[in-house]
Known about the structure:
By secondary structure, the protein is α+β, with helices and mostly antiparallel strands. It has a domain at 26-87. The protein is built from 4 helices and 4 strands. The chain has helices at 2-17, 28-34, 74-77, 79-87; strands at 18-19, 22-23, 40-45, 63-68. It has a two-stranded antiparallel ribbon with strand order 1-2. Strands 3-4 form a two-stranded parallel sheet.
Amino acid sequence: MLQDLSRGRLHAVVNELLDGDVSHLDILPILDSIKDRLNVSAVIGIQDQIFPKETLFRLPSYINIHVVNAGHVPQWDTPAEIAALLQKPI
């Protein structure tokens, strides 16, 4: 029951941040400002029920995209896989 309650709260927060499949939070300008100094990667959980998978098609080409068999928080679902990704040179 507690898990269902917390999931419901998470969905409520996400509904405030998303308009359909478009986020009200735009971090792309920030990423664009650092792309020449830092490599940028995104880890997408293929089972994410919060952000639509179509989101990854909107990411700029300079972002290294990693798709993992996980939900919205891949570091919880697949910690060893995420640790391995973080240790790889980009």
